[in-house]
Specification:
Shape: globular
Structural class: mainly alpha
Helix content: over 70%
Number of helices: 4
Radius of gyration: 15 Å
Largest sheet: none
Order of helices and strands: HHHH
Strand content: under 5%
C-alpha cells in the first residue's frame, strides 16, 4: 500500500534528491531526511532551495540538448 504512494511522490518530486545523491554519492533516503528535518528546524527555507534545484534541473535538461534542425523543437 505504501509503495504506490512512494512511487507517485518520487515522480512528482522532480528527481532532485536522486540527482543530489548521485553527485554527492549518498543514498537518496539520507538526503530526503536531511531536507525534511532541516525544513522543520528552519521553517521551510530548504523548500526554497529544493524548488530552485528542481527548476535548475528542468532547465538544464532543455538547454543541454542539441538540436539538429528547426523541426526538432
Amino acid at each position: 500500500m505504501i509503495q504506490p504512494i512512494k512511487t507517485k511522490f518520487e515522480k512528482i518530486a522532480f528527481g532532485v534528491c536522486t540527482w543530489l545523491g548521485d553527485v554527492l554519492r549518498m543514498p537518496t533516503s539520507v538526503i530526503r531526511f536531511f531536507f525534511i528535518y532541516l525544513s522543520f528546524l528552519t521553517v521551510g527555507s530548504p523548500l526554497v532551495i529544493y524548488l530552485t534545484l528542481a527548476f535548475w534541473l528542468r532547465l538544464k535538461k532543455y538547454i543541454g540538448t542539441k538540436k539538429t534542425s528547426i523541426w526538432d523543437l
